[in-house]
């Protein structure tokens, strides 16, 4: 032991005790999936507190010279069979609470481990246990023991990031509860037998706590629920709180705040109910609460079990490319997308084949390096999620997110980090040609833009089982609780027809006639990518602008031929519309004043997630006529290149270097220029995003086609990559080839909206479909290809 003691003494100056604020990575390797439970355990550097798997600790020692590591190994304790199948089935014990990791909520597996901790000195991996330390000099024993205890007691980075539990039933006190106005109108509500005062509906009945009006609730995404009369009453009167009749018990009731748009607590509920003659202490529950309804939706057989392939015994799979990813609470959207991306050769060659080079070039803290965390055999979900979400208002949180939005966000990050060298996002990049024809002159205008995803509309009027849908709807309206849930059957060909059919523009300003007229817009592919992503537009808005999900089944094909959607460009003999700007809306001698906008309408639009400047323009161009008109304008202009650009009136003095409110930040300009863009390009990006740097960087990568003078390394396509030797289209580099594809993966969503539910990926490997359900990886027996949300196709070589 004398030799080991002397060795420890020689490295004592490098052994640190963690202080508040130190990042301690004691649960996962900074370069791999390795953890204390992995073979070989985890080595934590006692100087930098980085965690390293056994295959990387020698490399870290050679690179940094650090010798002292805390070696942590954990062995899982055997546990009694809990009755679950382990094959992807939902837990047999039904949840009674809308929560995760809480009694009565959805189960989260909690494993028990036996832990072994000792100090290891490299390069010979000499081991020092706690017992060995007791025989060493005081100065060595105290320093090393304090470091060991500090590392083990510190909250690991992954623990800090991880959601241990989530309770969807925790509600906040309504701001209206304490001083709620109640009308002395003599209204008294009976203890039972409630009906909607407008439509006579007897289920999902709510009473407004201001005037005692008894009305039906919202219509749910599947057609059940109410007819929105309680919501309409709020919109007419502004009376904010309503209680769900049938949920009132001595313990409380469901109270909803329309103003706060959430379920809330009302500490004065007994008093508010008594005002209308309801004795809360004598009431009994006769209807399911909103929580019980949401739990039922999250377990509904029609989608949840089919997509997860519950009810069948699935054979677990292991090996390269078959590693599951742990769900960090609400990270299934990330897991599903990353599993699919790393089956694509471009991402494999960028982040997997170059693993040795990536690790050798990694910075001192690889947990903050995009390339290092982007390696598939080294994706540590906690670190990776924290890195890709850093600074983003949604992906930095632990809320559920839209897989399609995350995919685009990740592609933007790849674009940002791959301006030199190979860029795997090129596999998805393609050019779209838009052809607008003035119906009065038949002259045309052609524009091109870059895109990464095809958004496929769902024409509900083309359902092939219309009679079944109508019958199910009729039975629900009649209050038949046994009415089956019927899913609309939509032909894939109908979706493609809706995508390719010309769009009628009724308010098009034609430069040929110098006036507004009607035009048609046709969208076609100017290039076909190596890998095509198709999003089924299942998420939409109802008539009351409440988000809803379309419950549809689409016969998505295994092979796809899009050759007929190839853009042809200007036709022989076809005249183009003159490049003439539209005239100003007001004469130069008229003073241009800032528009007076309805702030409440602007706020409502912003709360739906639209950019502030887009909301201001929507209200301005619809003449302050209300939320419906502004929402219609917003939805029809979302694809405009200047959608989020500042509102600038004709004749305003806002120059190219300013936003309407402030000068552009020189620091922001310098930051974007340092990324390889010109000052003009940086100026345009900042002007389009109200001088917000993060938004400007995202904007510039999603509007490469708008930056006509861009000098990017991608240049243009090579002739060899172009189909039939076509000249490459202008703009950033795109790969081109035949428009024939085969399906190799799809991501499915379960739940009522993108903000809740669960994502699962199915990937075809060696002609066998495999289901990736977070950590569970199994051979798929019945891949539900008709219920997917994102579909991934790869080009078929001719």
Outline of this structure?
By secondary structure, the protein is α+β, with helices and mostly antiparallel strands.
List the helices and strands and how they pair.
Layout: H1 2-11, E1 42-45, E2 51-53, H2 57-64, E3 68-76, E4 99-100, E5 113-121, E6 126-128, H3 130-133, H4 138-153, H5 157-161, E7 166-167, E8 205-208, E9 214-216, H6 229-237, E10 241-244, E11 255-257, E12 262-264, H7 269-274, H8 290-298, H9 301-308, H10 332-341, H11 345-351, H12 355-360, H13 370-373, H14 381-389, H15 403-417, E13 430-438, E14 444-451, E15 454-456, H16 466-477, E16 488-490, H17 492-500, E17 503-510, E18 515-525, E19 531-536, E20 539-541, E21 547-549, E22 552-554, E23 559-561, H18 599-607, H19 612-621, H20 627-636, H21 666-673, H22 679-688, H23 693-702, E24 740-750, E25 758-765, E26 768-773, E27 776-779, E28 788-795
Parallel strand pairs: 15-19, 16-22
Antiparallel strand pairs: 1-2, 1-3, 3-5, 4-7, 5-6, 8-9, 8-10, 10-11, 11-12, 13-14, 13-18, 17-18, 19-28, 20-21, 23-24, 24-25, 24-28, 25-26, 26-27
Helix pairs in contact: 15-23, 18-19, 19-20, 21-22, 22-23
Instruction: Please name the CATH architecture of the domain at 4-77 and 112-167.
Output: 2-Layer Sandwich
- Net shape: globular
Point out poorly predicted stretches. 81-92, 98-102, 159-169, 298-302, 367-380, 585-592, 650-662, 708-731
The assigned structural class equals alpha+beta
CATH fold name of the domain at 4-77 and 112-167: Herpes Virus-1
Give the integer mean of the pLDDT values.
Answer: 77
- Give the number of helices: 23
- How big a fraction of the residues is strand? 15-25%
Estimate percent helicity.
25-40%
CATH superfamily descriptor of the domain at 4-77 and 112-167: Zinc/RING finger domain, C3HC4 (zinc finger)
CATH level 1 name of the domain at 4-77 and 112-167: Alpha Beta
Span between termini: 69 Å
Strand count, sense and closure of the main sheet?
Answer: 8 strands, mixed
Give the beta-strand count. Answer: 28
* Radius of gyration from CA coordinates: 30 Å
């Amino acid at each position: 032991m004398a030799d080991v003691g002397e060795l420890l003494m020689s490295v004592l100056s490098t052994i640190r005790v963690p202080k508040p604020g130190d990042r301690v990575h004691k649960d996962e390797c900074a370069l791999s999936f390795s953890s204390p439970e992995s073979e070989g355990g985890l080595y934590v550097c006692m100087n930098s507190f980085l965690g390293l798997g056994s295959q990387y600790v020698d490399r870290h020692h050679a690179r940094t010279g650090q010798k002292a590591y805390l070696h942590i190994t954990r062995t899982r304790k055997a546990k009694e069979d809990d009755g679950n199948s382990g094959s992807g089935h939902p837990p047999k014990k039904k949840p009674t609470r809308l929560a995760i990791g809480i009694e009565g909520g959805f189960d989260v597996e909690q494993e028990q481990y036996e832990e072994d901790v000792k100090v290891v000195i490299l390069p010979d991996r000499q081991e020092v246990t706690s017992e060995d330390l007791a025989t060493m000099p005081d100065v060595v024993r105290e320093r090393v023991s304090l470091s060991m205890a500090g590392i083990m007691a510190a909250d690991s980075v992954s623990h800090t990031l991880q959601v241990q539990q989530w309770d969807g039933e925790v509600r906040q006190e309504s701001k209206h509860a304490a001083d709620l106005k109640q009308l002395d109108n003599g209204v008294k509500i009976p203890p039972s037998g409630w009906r909607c005062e407008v439509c006579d509906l007897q289920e999902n009945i709510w009473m407004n706590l201001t005037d005692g009006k008894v009305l039906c609730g919202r219509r749910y995404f599947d057609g059940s629920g109410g007819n929105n009369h309680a919501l309409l009453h709020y919109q007419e009167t502004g009376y904010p709180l309503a209680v769900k009749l049938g949920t009132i018990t001595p313990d409380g009731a469901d109270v909803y705040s329309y103003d706060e748009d959430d379920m809330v607590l009302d500490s004065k509920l007994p008093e508010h109910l008594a005002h209308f003659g309801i004795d809360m202490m004598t009431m009994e529950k006769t209807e399911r609460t909103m929580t019980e309804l949401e739990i039922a939706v999250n377990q509904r057989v029609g989608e949840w079990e089919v997509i997860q392939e519950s009810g069948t015994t699935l054979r677990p799979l292991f090996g390269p490319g078959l590693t599951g990813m742990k769900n960090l609470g609400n990270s299934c959207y990330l897991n599903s997308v990353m599993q699919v991306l790393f089956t694509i050769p471009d991402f494999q060659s960028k982040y997997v084949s170059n693993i040795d080079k990536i690790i050798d070039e990694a910075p001192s803290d690889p947990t903050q390096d995009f390339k290092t965390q982007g390696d598939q055999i080294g994706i540590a979900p906690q670190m990776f999620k924290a890195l890709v979400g850093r600074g983003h208002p949604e992906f930095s949180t632990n809320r559920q997110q839209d897989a399609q939005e995350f995919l685009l966000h990740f592609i933007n990050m790849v674009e940002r980090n791959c301006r030199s060298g190979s860029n795997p996002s090129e596999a998805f990049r393609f050019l779209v040609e838009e052809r607008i024809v003035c119906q009065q002159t038949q002259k045309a205008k052609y524009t091109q833009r870059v895109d990464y995803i095809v958004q496929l509309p769902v024409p509900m009027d083309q359902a092939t089982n219309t009679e079944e849908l109508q019958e199910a709807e009729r039975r629900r309206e009649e209050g038949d609780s046994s009415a089956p849930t019927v899913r609309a059957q939509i032909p894939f060909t109908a979706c493609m027809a809706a995508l390719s059919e010309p769009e009628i523009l009724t308010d098009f300003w034609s430069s040929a006639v110098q006036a507004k007229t009607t035009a048609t817009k046709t969208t076609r592919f100017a290039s076909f990518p190596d890998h095509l992503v198709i999003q089924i537009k299942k998420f939409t808005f109802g008539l009351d602008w409440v988000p809803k999900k379309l419950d549809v089944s689409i016969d998505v094909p295994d092979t796809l031929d899009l050759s007929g959607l190839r853009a042809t460009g200007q036709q022989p003999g076809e005249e183009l519309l003159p490049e003439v700007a539209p005239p100003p809306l007001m004469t130069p001698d008229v003073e241009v004043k800032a528009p007076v906008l309805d702030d409440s309408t602007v706020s409502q639009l912003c709360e739906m997630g639209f950019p502030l400047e887009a909301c201001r323009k929507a209200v301005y161009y619809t003449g302050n006529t209300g939320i419906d008109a502004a929402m219609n304008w917003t939805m029809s202009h979302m694809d405009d290149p200047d959608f989020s650009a500042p509102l600038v009136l004709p004749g305003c003095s806002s120059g190219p270097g300013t936003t309407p409110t402030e000068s552009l930040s020189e620091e922001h300009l310098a930051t974007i220029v340092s990324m390889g863009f010109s000052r003009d390009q940086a100026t345009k990006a900042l002007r389009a995003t109200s001088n917000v740097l993060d938004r400007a960087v995202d904007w510039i990568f999603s509007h490469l086609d708008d930056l006509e003078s861009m000098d990017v390394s991608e240049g243009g396509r090579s002739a060899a990559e172009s189909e039939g030797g076509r000249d490459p289209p202008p703009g950033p580099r795109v790969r081109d080839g035949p428009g024939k594809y085969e399906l190799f993966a799809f991501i499915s969503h379960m739940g009522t909206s993108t903000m809740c539910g669960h994502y699962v990926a199915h990937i075809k490997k060696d002609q066998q479909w495999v289901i990736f359900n977070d950590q569970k990886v199994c051979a798929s027996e019945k891949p539900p290809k008709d219920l997917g949300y994102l579909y991934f196709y790869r080009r078929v070589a001719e």
